[in-house]
Amino acid sequence: MLSSAANVFKNVSISHKVMGLVLGGCLLVGASVAYSNYQIARGIAVQVAQDELRVEADGRVAAVLDYLDLIAFDMNFVAEHPQTRSALKSFDFAWNVMGDAPMQTLQDAYIHNNPYPVGEKHKLVDVKDDEVYTTIHADNHPVFRKLVEKRGYYDVFLINETGDVVYSVFKEMDYATNLVSGEFAGSDLGKAFQAVKANPAPGSQVFFDFAPYAPSAGAPASFIATPVLDTDGSFLGALAFQMPHGAITDIVRASDNPEHHHGAYLVGADGLLRIDASMNEVDDTLTTAFDKDFVSRVLSQGTHTADMTGLSGNEVRAFGQRVEFLGTQWALINEQDVEAIMAPAIALRNNMLTVTGIVMAIVSALAWFASLGFVRPIRQLDGAVSQLASGQTADVPGLDRGDELGTLARSLDAINDRAERNQQIRSALDSSQACVMLISESGTITYANTALVKLFARSQSYLAGRSNGLDVARLRGVQADTLADIPAFAPSSLSGTRAQTRTEAQFDNRAFDIHLSPVLNADGEVTGFVAEWDEQTEKREITRQVRQVIDAVASGDLTQRLDLKSNDSFFTDISGGVNTICARVGEFLDDIGATVDELAAGNLTRKVSGQYSGQYQQVASNLDNAIDRSASLVSQIANTARAVTKATTGITDGATELSRRSESQASSLQETAATMEEMSATVKSSAENASTANQMAGEVSSRAKEGAQVVTDAISAMGLIEQSSVKISDIIAVIDSIAFQTNLLALNAAVEAARAGDAGKGFAVVASEVRTLAQRSSAAAADIKELIQASSVHVSDGVRLVQASGESLQAMTGDIRDVSAKIEEIASASREQATGIQEISTAVSSLDQITQGNSTIAEESAAAARALTQLSGDLDALVNRFKISEQSSQFDEGKADVQWQQAAISSPQPKLAQPAAVASRAPVAAAASDWAEF
Amino acid sequence: MSEEVKTENFDSKQYVTFVVGERLYGVEITAVREIKQWSPTTALPNQPVYTRGVLNLRGTIVPVHDLRARFGGMLTDATENHVIVIASIADQAVGILVDAVSDILNVSPDDTRSVPPSAREMDLEAISGLVARDDQMIALLDLTRLFPVNTFMAA
Question: Is A797 exposed, middle or buried, given 0-12, 13-18 or 19+ CB atoms closer than 10 A?
Fold first, then answer.
């Protein structure tokens, strides 16, 4: 392990070692100082925080107790004040004279009918009725309201001896209730009153801790109460304050710092918070529970400290102190985040780490520069030595240094000079064009220059085959006589060679002259040989080829060429000259031959293309003149033929177009004629239909008139029925009257019969019968009367309906008359249309005949033009067999047109006058547009 | 049926019944002289509010009283269909205006119910009894109490 670490250490560079040692030392010192300082700072921070928490809690407790004592003093002062006493007496009196249900009356007046919204009920001073209570309230309310507003109490209550809340400032739902027997007797306010009443000692006070209070909509409420005593010490009732929750909260939280998670709050013995702590978002009052064990320790020991999870949810240090007021115990808890306490220590630690980092950076920079001072020269020397070792020359640095490194550099420079001189000789041999080889005494190759290696490279495969896997680039150490069967290189013949010798050698179809010379040392002894290679292969090859080409030219074959690639300029000049002569003569003969061939094929554009001199030029210009004259002749013929063709094409197009339009016109006219006939029939038919409709309308009109007459008759018949009904009614009235009289007569008869006593009994029966008949006839008359009335109603309904239908018929008659008139107009219009259409139809028919004639004539002229076009095309084709030059074949269109027109106008034949007009462009367009319009 | 016949034979009395409004009243037939159709009357000065005036009945001047008005109602709007019952009260003929005469009834004393006493209803002294017929009560009138002759005379 140790040895391997030592090995690693050996392999690390010196500069790294130096830097490592310096940095390691710095890091060790910096880290140990930072750690010890951090630990000390941490201890101090905890102690300081603990003391701060304790001092602050002391201050909050004192402030809360001061405030509560002030309230207690306030309470006693108010309770013993003469105005309080007289107010309570007055309210009690007013309460007792108020009647049966004072609670309902007061709650209606001061709560339900109070115009102010909930929470502002105390603004109502005077309800302006004639109750005694109203006057007393108006007198006392401003005083108590002022007390509440000044002191910030939640509410102030006056309670009479029997427990009725005769007055409260804010008039919540506990107002005017009874605290002994009423709805809120069990509430803390009720309990407070009951406790005061049980022991009404002067100046005694009872206090009830914060608890949800129903009349204040379940808001947390705490009460303090004291007895109100008369001057003789008798119990008048009680004064109670509802404690100011907000003010106590503000006092406890006075030194809170939410940014640093630091705050105080009150906790009851049940572990629930009494105020809303500032560290969290929710309303904690009586809802958030605190660690009960912690609270009980505070209450039993007076103070307690612990680390725990605070209300903000963070780790905190909490300090609790007991608060006691009128028998109620609270714990005031002051908490602060551990993170905030530790913040200074952490800041110190971070600061020290930063400083250590900066020092480390500076020290490492210094160490790096120091190490560079002696490591860089060593590295440079190392680079120079490596270059020398690989056979190259190098610049040795540090020659001017006076230390050990300077000495080392100067020795290296001397070695470098010697190596440089050897390198010069070797590169001179390598760049020489002569092919040189050094051979040792024993016949192995010790050196081959670059030219020789190139020479051998051409026969690489041959040499490789002779001596297994021989690489011409690596000839050193090869036995020289194995390259070829060269006897001079055999070790036996070399040993006797003392002067320069020349030897011919041949391999791979190549011929060489080899000059071999011994190399002597300073003592004149042979230490090796120099062999110079001279290749003879090209010289022999060119002699053979020149002979072959001269034979071919003599027999008329000019295509033979000397094919020779040589570096020798003499050989190149000879072969180039022979090849040029052959090429020029061959080229001239080819040119003449090609031109004559083209002429035979009708191409008059081909000239003798080459530039020649002497006899060549004479022959070429004679041939060119002959071709030019022929071309000029053919060109004139071709121009004339093209002009003819173009003109006839124009005639044909015009004639064809005329023919086509005439046909189209004829067919359009036929369609028009057919359509006109259909239209004529349709119009006639609609005229007939209109007549029929008119007739029918007349019939309908006369029927409607008859209907109107029927209606009139029906109305008069109805009137007669109505009159009859009236008469019948009169008659019925008479009958009814008669029946009434008869009844009376019968009654009188009955009376007379009764007077007659027994003698009148028979008569009484008759009278009774008569009376019955009279009553029946009266009933019948009433029935008839009813029926008549009903029929009368029906008759008037009938009259109304008949009248309505009569009016409808009247309106119909008028409408029908209008319809009839309209139909008559339609009929006459249709007749006029029919006449007009007949005239149009006749005109179209005659037009059709004319157009048919035109069409036939146009067809004939088109056929004649087509025949002409055919003929001129034939002529053109004949001329086009000759190819002539662009310049002489250009067709002058304008000129041709003019010439042709002149010819046409001067022509005596009338038939050609028409096509002549077609040929000039403007008249064609005019004629075409005329026909299109037609 | 037989019982009804029996009662007729004994003490049963005949009553003329008539209608005022929806109420039925009865008068003993022997007190009735005549029944006649309404005819206009001649008004007299200072006559009682329920008196319509006098009527010349075949030479006899007969005062006519409105029974509806007598019982505290409005004056009857008399038409030809209204009836005057001429009755004799203490031998004096008196006309009573009613809406209609409905029937002649036989009533036995057993069917008659007495009027329940009441301090305030003074006029009930003029009703001698009540008879139940066909779900309706018929008040039998004592005309001498209803229209005291001396009262009229004094008037």
Answer: exposed
